[in-house]
Design goal:
Blueprint (H helix, E strand, L loop, with lengths): L3 E2 H7 L6 H9 L3 E3 L2 E2 L5 E2 L4 E4 L6 E5 L9 H5 L2 E3 L1 H16 L14 H11 L2
Antiparallel strand pairs: 1-4, 2-3, 2-5, 5-6, 6-7
Helix pairs in contact: 1-2
Length: 126
């Protein structure tokens, strides 16, 4: 096997749970093949670069093997190799998310009570 449909490869490599989800993402333009938007039936070959914009930093992978069968995760991991640049970007983004404060933690008391609203109105001069 020297070529395989893109949606089938994404499904076999376990990026998406179903082929239909993979097809949807491809048609929405969230999956690029060699830096170009494509269709689900486009054929993938070994050495192609696939960009997945599934999360905030896009994930770039090189196709190292082809398989039309969805197997266990360790076998699926051997179908691709993530680029070093993509890996570092995703690691930095994860570290940034870990260190950034949660915005919802600023609101300890929740919505202001009637008493709080009256005090705010007094401060504003209304």
């Amino acid at each position: 096997m020297d070529k395989l449909r893109l949606d089938k490869w994404l499904w076999a490599a376990r990026f998406y749970k179903t082929r239909s989800l993979a097809s949807e993402e491809i048609t929405k333009g969230r999956v690029l093949l060699n830096q170009q938007s494509t269709k689900p039936a486009r054929e993938v070959s070994i050495g192609d670069v696939i960009t997945l914009r599934k999360e905030t930093p896009a994930m770039e992978v090189h196709v190292t093997a082809l398989s039309g069968v969805r197997g266990p995760a360790p076998v699926a991991r051997q179908l691709y190799q993530e680029t070093e640049e993509s890996s570092t970007r995703r690691t930095q983004a994860a570290e940034h998310r870990r260190l950034a404060p949660e915005p919802a933690l600023d609101f300890d008391a929740g919505r202001p009570t009637k008493k709080d609203r009256r005090q705010m109105q007094l401060l504003r001069g209304k």
